[in-house]
TrEMBL record:
Gene Ontology molecular function, alphabetical: glycosyltransferase activity
Gene3D superfamilies xrefs: Spore Coat Polysaccharide Biosynthesis Protein SpsA, Chain A (3.90.550.10)
Domain Glycosyltransferase 2-like: 10-167
Protein name in the entry: Glycosyltransferase
Length: 341
């Protein structure tokens, strides 16, 4: 379906060196059928693989926003949202592929009384078609826990790899904090939206296929073992902590933050013992206190803004919390992660 003026849906694809993957992603977006109008925006984050030229040549109806410097996933999506004109935004990873009927399913559910809700779809692994999640709940430290029950539709977090959000809700939340860069931005967005009275659902329906961890590396199971990277792990710990600081009520922070800090220290020691190497462990955990201090003013301002506009009780944030630490459960099940550069 080609894009026209005044679209119903703006499909926003953040791209960095997407190669063939982003072309497959765009194919799946333009192939969507239904009684709606779409526009497709691609923010190219200073790719070096010729992505912008290939996208323009193959998809002349796609609007390419080319950045001169690499700015990260959050700023890329913020820029596309600012340029988009659809009533709804679909944030789509460049290594994800929509299954036929996905946009029609999302739009129908939204228009049936869920115009202010964040929506997601079942996520399947591109490699083997296995179900990855139907949204997430989290532990108290905001580690995501996949939800797989087809009977459960309201969730704590919808994955940012394919995330539907009404324009009005996006504007109310304020988009992604630009200083997050990447990783856990979907957790922040869903928690902040829930504080402001919005709900999060993952629908039955076609879903999407995703090369999980293909772009940033890690964040997946390979041959029964966990794999991650230094950069992903460092960004994840920083941004989950910042999300707690921005969203959690003070009584919860007073209890959870000291435990969180202790567990991170134990985790760092355990990785050292497991053979991860001092340089790797330091690269993940040592910058965290300095980075949190550097972002204290932005986090304080964002927290104040959310608190002033909050319509849901703070306890709402813990409606989808499982209190057993997810990292402990994963350690017992899969052992220590392999950490790449």
């Amino acid at each position: 379906m080609s894009s026209v003026s005044q679209p119903d849906i703006s499909v926003c694809i953040a791209n960095y060196n997407g190669g063939e993957l982003v072309l497959e992603c765009l194919d799946s977006a333009f192939a969507q059928q239904g009684g709606f109008r779409i526009e497709v925006l691609v923010h190219d984050d200073a790719s070096s693989d010729g992505s912008p030229e290939r996208i323009r040549a193959r998809f002349p109806n796609a609007r390419v926003i080319a950045s001169e410097a690499n700015c990260g996933f959050c700023i890329s999506n913020n820029r596309m949202a600012a340029a988009a004109s659809g009533r709804y935004l679909l944030l789509l990873n460049n290594d994800a592929v929509l299954r036929p009927g996905s946009l029609q399913r999302l739009l129908r559910f939204a228009e049936e009384g869920h115009q202010d809700c964040i929506l997601g779809l079942p996520q399947y692994a591109m490699a083997d078609g296995a179900l990855v999640d139907r949204g997430y709940r989290t532990d108290p430290f905001l580690n995501p826990i996949p939800m797989l029950d087809p009977q459960t539709h309201e969730v704590g977090v919808a994955t940012g790899a394919c995330l539907w959000i009404p324009r009005q809700t996006w504007d109310e939340v304020g988009g992604f904090p630009p200083w997050f860069e990447s990783v856990a931005e979907d957790i922040f967005l869903c928690l902040a939206a829930r504080l402001l009275g919005h709900r999060v659902f993952v629908l039955d329906g076609p879903g999407f296929d995703h090369w999980v961890g293909k772009q940033l590396g890690g964040g997946k199971l390979v041959d029964g073992g966990l794999q991650t990277t230094v950069r992903r792990r460092a960004l994840s710990e920083r941004n989950k902590t910042l999300t707690m600081l921005c969203c959690y009520p003070w009584p919860a922070l007073a209890c959870i933050l000291p435990i969180h800090a202790l567990l991170l220290a134990i985790e760092a020691c355990a990785l050292l013992v497991s053979g991860a190497g001092a340089a790797t462990v330091l690269a993940i955990y040592a910058p965290l206190p300095r980075q949190l201090w550097a972002r204290r003013r932005q986090a304080r301002a964002l927290r104040r803004s959310l608190r002033q506009r909050r319509t849901a009780p703070p306890a709402t944030l813990f409606a989808f919390t499982r209190w057993i630490p997810q990292k402990l459960a994963m350690l017992l099940r899969h052992g220590f992660p392999a950490i790449g550069n």
